[in-house]
Design a protein that fits this description.
globular, 364 residues, alpha/beta, three-stranded antiparallel sheet, 11 helices
Length: 364
């Protein structure tokens, strides 16, 4: 009993899922894990206490289903985003990946196309194909940037139903100007999703795509609490869009998809946004330190508005990855030739990475 004898190919799997591989980043119990762009700083004690108290209160009614509309959390997100965003424009789910899945379930699906500029977040094609749509990858410049003209031309040529703009981009860290977003929107007839998972790590004086929402009913701006809010384990993502878009997402969400405990924890964390975001400046300082030191070591770090740095000039990424692994440092090989990516961690973690890399020689 319990013995598994079938292979995946033996099961009546959907034909369009055959040959796909699930999302996965290397997991290993190493002392310094800098491979999945987590916020390696823990939630501050003063905030953690309030979150725990809020969860304890929610537990008293956990025998009942949570509020499907999560009004308190939507109001908290609207207040956090500002720019005139209202609770009716907010949607949330279990991580930004579920938010994006809802978008594809509502606006993608069989016979439809989703588009993004590669290299970009690897979950976009996975979510697209898993929801039955076709993924089409556009191209970036050699330095991973996009111009309004070339981006708009590619979108107009493909005519996709959903466009994903990762701003700033993962895995490259590349900024994206509002001019590019506006040009892509004008060139499209479908939904345009601006994924701002790393927006809080961008320069403070740079405007968010949230400022473009007015008058653009097909524009969606998605965010996550995983990065700047150090909430990766809580799984909370959200978006802002026209209220009609939010109505469309209600059609595909599972009943009571956002637990009462999740709602309580996220709402409490947002009450302490200034404290939580106090970690961001420290992370940005370590990111910039990484870039400067990588350059001094002979590598080519790419400009980054995120909490990570993609760097080129790596002769043998697999060998360098393994050498760092053997020294207790976990980074990410994202499949871009002669490149590796490293998350900006604490000062101690950053030091450990830089010293380990320096011990390998100028380039490896």
């Amino acid at each position: 009993m319990g013995e598994v004898t079938a292979r995946l190919d033996d099961l009546p799997l959907r034909d369009d899922l055959r040959g796909m591989t699930p999302y996965g980043a290397p997991q290993a119990p190493l002392p310094v894990a800098l491979n999945v762009n987590e916020n390696t700083h823990p939630v501050p004690d003063e905030v953690a206490g309030d979150i725990l108290d809020s969860i304890a209160l929610a537990l008293r009614d956990v025998n009942r289903y949570p509020d499907r509309e999560f009004p308190a959390l939507r109001e908290a997100f609207a207040d956090y985003l500002g720019e005139g965003v209202t609770p009716e424009q907010i949607w949330a789910a279990n991580g930004s990946n579920e938010v994006l899945q809802h978008v594809l379930q509502a606006f993608g699906g069989p016979g439809r196309t989703a588009f993004g500029f590669g290299p970009t977040y690897s979950m976009y094609p996975l979510l697209t194909r898993a929801t039955g749509a076709t993924w089409v990858a556009g191209a970036r410049e050699d330095d991973f940037t996009l111009s309004p003209e070339t981006a708009a031309a590619q979108v107009a040529d493909v005519d996709p139903d959903v466009v994903f703009l990762c701003a700033p981009n993962n895995p490259t860290g590349t900024p994206m100007s509002l001019d590019v977003i506006a040009a892509v929107y004008e060139a499209s007839r479908g939904i345009v999703v601006v994924d701002e998972a790393y927006e809080e790590f961008a320069p403070h004086d740079e405007p968010s795509a949230i400022t473009l929402l007015g008058g653009r009913e097909r524009l969606i701006v998605s965010r996550t609490m995983s990065k700047a809010f150090a909430f990766a384990g809580a799984r909370v993502g959200y978006l802002a869009a026209d209220p009609a878009v939010v109505d469309a997402l209600r059609l595909v969400r599972l009943p009571y998809h956002l637990s009462a405990l999740t709602q309580a924890a996220a709402t409490a964390a947002l009450r302490h946004a200034p404290v939580m975001l106090g970690m961001v400046d420290e992370i940005v300082a370590q990111r910039d330190r990484i870039s400067a030191t990588l350059e001094a070591l002979g590598y080519q770090p790419h400009p980054s508005w995120t909490n990570f740095v993609l760097f080129g000039g790596v002769d043998d990424p697999a060998a360098t990855f393994r050498a760092l692994y053997d020294r207790g440092i976990l980074v990410r090989d994202v499949g871009i030739p002669h490149h590796l990516r490293v998350t900006a961690g604490t000062e101690a973690e950053t030091t450990a990475f830089l010293e380990a890399l320096a011990s390998l020689g100028s380039t490896s």
